[in-house]
Design goal:
Elements lengths: L1 H26 L7 E15 L3 E6 L5 E12 L3 E8 L2 E7 L1 H4 L40 E2 L5 E5 L1 E5 L4 E2 L7 E4 L5 E6 L2 E6 L5 E10 L4 E11 L9 H8 L4 E2 L5 E4 L2 E5 L4 E2 L7 E4 L6 E5 L2 E5 L5 E10 L4 E10 L6 E3 L11 E2 L3 E2 L12 E3 L3 E5 L4 E2 L8 E9 L5 E7 L1 H6 L4 E3 L6 E4 L8 E14 L6 E6 L3 E8 L2 E7 L13 E9 L4 E14 L5 E2 L5 E5 L4 E4 L4 E2 L7 E4 L5 E6 L2 E6 L5 E5 L1 E4 L4 E3 L3 E6 L7 E3 L5 E4 L3 E5 L5 E3 L3 E2 L11 E4 L5 E5 L6 E3 L3 E2 L12 E4 L5 E5 L5 E3 L3 E2 L6
């Protein structure tokens, strides 16, 4: 009963606060009458301009013109300028050379968002025109699905794992300040330190720049107080400072052509410079082995894709990375000679090149617009004997890097192509291959492979002969890009205007060099007399349900509106244990991590002159619902997954667990945990969900060369039915490999 009285008193105080705010507004000083206000509008025009000329722009909303900005696109060839003309005076709106010819060094002065020009890594031909050297820039993007991070006293976030750049530009990273945190960025690592020692939630903006464009991403932070200090000793200090290994590369796939060696130290990073050890999952049709940090892969199969999970460990913590393996076609070299032993020394040297002196790909660099063609040829391939060219064929592979799609075909001798299980698409082995965007699965970024083969096989007993010679695989890159640059809010001299007050204006276009200019929308602002209208509440908020330890968001544009299209600012009544953050028209309700129960609040929307108050709404924080643990065997490992990965046993018998190991302990488990019982129904081992702690009634024995499971044991075997781990009936665990605790699974 006392609890109900306390909630009722709190709600009454909340209502009184709402009444007090409203009275202060209605009885306080106020402004009346008309005022001069700036209004923002957009007119759809959808113009396509291919030659110089004029366009009469009649404003749908009259007043004193304060600014003009335009959206659209322009081709990368030619030049285009747009002027606003009034009373014989012209104001420059857009000059396409302003961003087509910009370099990374001075791109910060650009008013245009979208594509810009970057310096090529190769030295440009000084005989080419500027237009020949124009290429587009793709902005960095946030490619991670993660939008929330936990700062447990201190957090190190590798921003290169969350931002990507389609152009493979080197990125520079920044971070905004965040109240209560010490924020620093070194290379790609953002380090966040809790300064005030309390638990709280906040947001922070991370920024990535390629020197031309930048992208920012606001993420939520769940900040926990600094862990309590333990007695200072060398072991404790080492554990507190340890950082888990990280994947330090944009690469997430490798191409396997029969064999491949990968130095994993080139791809994993350990901030503490700890010595790393590695393990890898077992993929079907691929042989994996280690020589120190070198991962060796080999296969007898061809033309398929698969995945591998590679784990790096510093003996304190570990990190796993899933990579894609693209397996190319491989035809083993074969030479079977009868009566002509000298021919065993026949060799060929493949020459794969871009077609020279043709109308296609005039720069001969493999880069064209999406409407262009890139020609490739093997015609300069050389032979050290007088080859019978009618017996030649060329195997082609087109690999799309964008979506890993692989297309294969063959040109030339039909028997030769059949040797590679293909039918010929062209009669001649040296027919030029014409690549185009979308043809043979080609995307924006592609690799084209070619291999020349000689096939002369006669199975007649009177003239038995089998000559098969193959070149190495050669490859070239083929890239496509859009032939126009998109721009938004472009303004040169019209970002701010004074003294213009007409109902119509003239847009003047100057077009050179076959440029095509498209203008979709005109954005403009005008000053005019208007009476300010107060914001209104569209509907009540009523109830917001939040899961404990999580946040909830509200789209405030569904609840508040302003007839004048004024930008609204928001504030709120601050209940205990609840923080509300506002970003544009989104409210993020962030309860304290350990809070469970109900609270009341209201939101105030104001347009800087007038305001409206929402209803008093209920915030209901309920316990987090856990997923029952499941077992996943997809990647050749034994994985126990609850709301996230809890434990993984790989093909070598190594066990990684999210939490810690507890031995010689009573085992209690509920429906949310993964539990192992003996024949009497007694729990002998359990992995707790969501903590990931492993509890054993017995003890752990690890590093065993071979395992012989006892009767009534829970046995885990690899794909060859070899036992790599087992739990016996008394709750002891036996591992072929070793255990790693406190693993941060990806």
């Amino acid at each position: 009963m006392a609890g109900h009285k306390k909630k009722g008193a709190r709600l009454l105080m909340l209502l009184l606060a709402v009444i007090a705010i409203a009275m202060a507004f209605y009885f306080g000083p106020s402004l009346t009458g008309f005022v001069i206000r700036e209004f923002y509008h957009a007119d759809e025009v959808n113009l396509v301009i291919t030659s110089s000329g004029n366009y009469t722009w009649k404003l749908e909303n009259e007043g004193s013109l304060k600014s003009l900005k335009i959206d659209g696109s322009v081709t990368i060839y030619g030049k285009a300028k747009v002027y606003l003309e009034s009373n014989g005076i012209k104001y420059l709106v857009l000059d396409s050379s302003q961003f087509v010819n910009k370099t990374a060094k001075d791109s910060s002065a650009l008013q245009i968002s979208g594509f810009a020009v970057k310096e090529d890594s190769k030295e440009k031909d000084k005989n080419e025109s500027d237009e020949d050297n124009k290429i587009k820039n793709n902005k960095p993007k946030w490619s991670s699905e993660q939008d929330e991070f936990e700062v447990n006293g201190t957090a190190a976030i590798n921003l290169s794992l969350h931002f990507s750049d389609k152009d493979n530009d080197a990125l520079v990273y920044f971070a905004d300040e965040a109240e209560g945190l010490n924020v620093s960025v070194a290379n790609e690592i953002a380090v966040l330190v809790n300064e005030n020692g309390n638990d709280f939630n906040t947001t922070i903006a991370f920024i990535a720049s390629d020197g031309i464009d930048s992208t920012s991403r606001v993420v939520r932070l769940i900040v926990l107080k600094v862990p309590s200090e333990e007695p200072a000793n060398e072991t404790n200090l080492t554990e507190k400072k340890n950082n888990a290994p990280q994947w330090n590369s944009d690469t997430d796939y490798f191409v396997l052509n029969k064999t491949l060696a990968i130095n994993l130290l080139d791809y994993f990073l350990d901030l503490d410079n700890d010595q790393l050890s590695f393990s890898v999952s077992d993929a079907e049709n691929i042989n994996e082995s280690f020589n120190g940090s070198i991962l060796a892969l080999s296969t007898e199969a061809y033309d398929f894709n698969t995945t591998l999970n590679i784990t790096a460990s510093d003996n304190k913590s570990s990190f796993g990375k899933e990579i894609r393996i693209i397996v190319l076609a491989y035809i083993a070299n074969a030479t079977i000679i009868s009566n002509e032993t000298l021919e065993q020394n026949k060799t060929m040297s493949i020459s794969l090149s871009y077609g020279s002196g043709t109308i296609y790909d005039v720069n001969d660099n493999g880069e064209e617009t999406i409407n262009g063609v890139v020609d490739l040829t093997v015609g300069q391939t050389s032979f050290n004997w007088d080859v019978e060219k009618s017996r030649l064929c060329t195997f082609w592979r087109v690999q799309s890097i964008d979506d890993a799609k692989l297309t294969k075909f063959c040109n030339g001798n039909s028997q030769c192509c059949a040797f590679g299980e293909l039918l010929p698409t062209e009669d001649l082995w040296n027919d030029t291959y014409y690549s185009a965007f979308g043809k043979d699965g080609a995307g924006y970024d592609n690799a084209v492979y070619a291999r020349v083969a000689y096939y002369n096989v006669n199975l007649s007993p009177d003239n038995l002969k089998s000559e098969i010679y193959l070149s190495e695989w050669a490859n070239l890159s083929v890239k496509y890009y859009k032939d126009e640059i998109e721009f938004a809010d472009a303004c040169a001299e019209t970002c701010s205007l004074e003294g213009l007050n007409r109902s119509s204006y003239t847009l003047v276009f100057e077009i050179e060099g076959d440029a095509v200019l498209k203008i979709g929308r005109l954005h403009y602002s005008i000053d005019s007399e208007a009476q300010n209208n107060a914001p209104i509440l569209l509907k009540n908020i009523s109830v917001v349900n939040v899961t404990k330890g999580r946040n909830a968001t509200i789209n405030l544009s569904e609840y508040f509106s302003d007839a004048d299209n004024d930008r609204l600012k928001y504030s709120y009544y601050e209940p205990d244990n609840i923080t509300i953050y506002f970003e544009n028209n989104t409210a993020t309700i962030a309860p304290d991590m350990d809070f469970e129960g109900i609270a009341f609040s209201y939101i105030i929307a104001n347009d800087s002159e007038k305001f409206v108050i929402s209803d008093v709404f209920l915030i209901n924080i309920t316990p987090k619902k856990l997923n029952a643990p499941t077992i996943n065997l997809t990647f050749g490992s034994f994985e126990i997954i609850g709301n996230a990965r809890l434990a993984v046993i790989d093909g070598f018998g190594n066990l990684n667990i999210k939490g810690t190991l507890i031995q010689n302990s009573e085992v209690s488990a509920d429906e949310n945990d993964f539990a192992i019982q003996n024949n009497s129904g007694l729990a002998t081992a359990a992995i707790k969900n969501p903590e990931g702690n492993l509890i054993l009634r017995g003890i752990l024995t690890e590093g065993l060369g071979s395992l012989n499971a006892t009767e009534s044991s829970f046995i885990i075997q690899d794909k060859n039915n070899v036992t790599i781990a087992y739990f016996n009936s008394t709750g002891s665990l036996f591992l072929k490999g070793i255990i790693t605790q406190n693993v941060a699974f990806e």
